[in-house]
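Record type: monomer structure entry
Structure origin: computed from sequence
Chain ID: A
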Amino acid sequence: MQTLFLQGPSVTLRTLVLVIASIGLMVLDHRGSQLEVVRNTLTYALYPLQYTIDLPIRLYYWGDETLSTHKTLLNEKRRLEDFQLLNKVRLQKLDILEKENRRLRKLLHATPKTGEKILIAEIINVDINPYRQLTVINKGSNDEVYISQPIIDAQGVIGQTIHVNANSSTAMLITDASHALPVQVDRTGLRAVAFGTGKIEHLDLRHIPHNADIRIGDTLITSGLGGRFPANYPVAVITHIERSPDEAFVSVDAEPLALLDRSREVLLVWHNQPQTELSGDDEP
């Protein structure tokens, strides 16, 4: 059996024959095109083998490129999401600033052209006592704020200061149960007093005679009487009138025009500041 497999030309002879055949084929291919058909045929025949051999390398590069592209897209997506979130925050802030700007412009236009000095203040606190309706603003004696100074917003009268500190002041709303404000009907000039009821949306007009010319929808403005509030500031609108023959006066309800529970910026009005007390040197 071993002798059978050893039969045939020697290895050296076979190698020499193959080398000579290779050189002959190269010379023949270089000098002529007789082997072009054979080359093409072998190329088509060996292509599946070449493709199979190259397939792992192709898959490696394809996977690496796919993963890199996916990672790049994920990073780009995160970057765009962060940028979008930042833009949304900026837009929200710009929207808030734009609304605040509109409120301040509207607030400044709310003051009648009477030459009165005004100062914008911000409400920084609200009294939670259900029996009092008080707010705290961020202006005080350092800003020349004084007790009983009128406070308004873009819609109407809010109230007046009752306590003044160096950098803040406490204001009583016109709806406080202990507050009373001289008013008059804008349409007829009828004078009355608007009393607070302790309810943020309700004022009470008392001592109105039965024959008074007053209607639902009439606007109440400050009359200027009493010397605290300047005249012609809007206060409230009449919402209910009840004429009972058993009562001596008409029952009249009004709703404040000012946004008492929503205003953030208010105006302090200098109208009738208290005179400085005389010192000992000034006494007669």
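Annotation 1: Confidence is low (pLDDT under 50) at residues 274-284.
Annotation 2: The helical segments are 2-5, 11-31, 36-109.
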